[in-house]
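ARCHIVE CARD
CATEGORY: sequence design from structure
SOURCE FIELD: tokenized fold
FIELD CONTENT:
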């Protein structure tokens, strides 16, 4: 069986088109399938629309989270719930085209355990993001201690062994493309063209994107910490040069000393802030809180209990409600 995991947050405008595209794609795949929609605390009618889909599509599973946990929290809940032999992860804004799914499944049938999608092109009406995304991937490629495919988001396929390996990890700050590469296994790449949103506005704020970028860099690289040592050496050298120049030109002694103090102080604050980022992530890991909590799992035609790996220590079993 193929599972498709889709996080949903205030996407009532897109849900009908999204599900239609998923159904059209899966008609080309000769496998049983389910689509796991994860309602990430939506404030619009998204949950009601997803429940209504179950009356028409027995393949629909709806996971309702206790509140809005963010993109990674919603994905994690869907990955814990999905029961397929292969799991496709994709966003719910149709920027990840479901039409690519049959190609990913074909690569999986050919022996790949991890199928990564790489963008040939990207449509983006928000000009700032269109500039920042390529810049981020170049920075990540330069800083990462581990080779991570560039221009690749969460859109991809993981077979059951790979998904279980990632589910067994308990990292609080996750960069899924990095974890997907880190677990290894036989990997195939599928290229596609990423479209702009079909409707509505993007739900990730600029600050949340910055945090996601920091998670990517700090989870797979110690180079920023090493760079702080190099910068410290450079700033100390510049401070010494400034001080000597100020001594040779006595009229500007005060300005030279002030500049040396500002350079040194600014560098210290930068290095402390960088160190604080890593320490904050250590604090998150020590607390070992789950990435999200499930309120309910709705499955059509089933009443019972499903054991959810990773949730047992917080809510040992989650009740499954019928769609009717």
């Amino acid at each position: 069986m193929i599972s498709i995991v889709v996080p949903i947050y205030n996407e009532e405008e897109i849900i009908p088109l999204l599900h239609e595209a998923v159904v059209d794609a899966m008609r080309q795949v000769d496998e049983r399938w389910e689509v796991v929609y994860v309602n990430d605390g939506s404030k619009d009618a998204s949950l009601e629309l997803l429940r209504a889909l179950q009356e028409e599509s027995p393949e629909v599973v709806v996971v309702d989270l206790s509140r809005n946990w963010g993109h990674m929290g919603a994905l994690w809940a869907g990955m814990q719930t999905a029961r397929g032999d292969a799991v496709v992860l994709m966003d719910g804004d149709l920027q990840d085209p479901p039409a690519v799914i049959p190609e990913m499944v074909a690569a999986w049938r050919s022996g790949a355990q991890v199928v990564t999608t790489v963008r040939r092109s990207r449509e983006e009406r928000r000009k700032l993001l269109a500039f920042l995304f390529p810049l981020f991937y170049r920075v990540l490629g330069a800083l990462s201690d581990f080779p991570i495919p560039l221009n690749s988001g969460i859109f991809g396929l993981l077979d059951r062994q790979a998904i279980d390996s990632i589910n067994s990890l308990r990292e609080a700050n996750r960069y899924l493309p990095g974890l997907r590469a880190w677990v290894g296994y036989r990997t195939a790449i599928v290229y596609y063209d990423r479209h702009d949103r079909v409707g509505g506005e993007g739900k990730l704020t600029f600050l949340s994107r910055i945090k996601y970028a920091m998670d990517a860099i700090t989870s797979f690289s110690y180079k920023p910490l090493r760079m702080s040592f190099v910068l410290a050496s450079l700033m100390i050298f510049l401070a010494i040069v400034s001080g000597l120049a100020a001594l040779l030109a006595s009229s500007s002694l005060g300005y030279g000393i002030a500049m040396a103090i500002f350079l040194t102080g600014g560098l210290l604050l930068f290095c402390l802030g960088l160190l604080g980022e890593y320490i904050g992530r250590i604090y998150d890991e020590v607390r070992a809180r789950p990435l999200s909590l499930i309120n309910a799992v709705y499955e059509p035609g089933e009443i019972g209990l499903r054991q959810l790996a990773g949730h047992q220590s917080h809510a040992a079993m989650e009740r499954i409600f019928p769609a009717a």
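CARD ANNOTATION: The CA atoms of residues 235 and 265 lie 10 Å apart. Residues 303-324 have pLDDT under 50 and may be disordered.
SHELF: design records, drawer C
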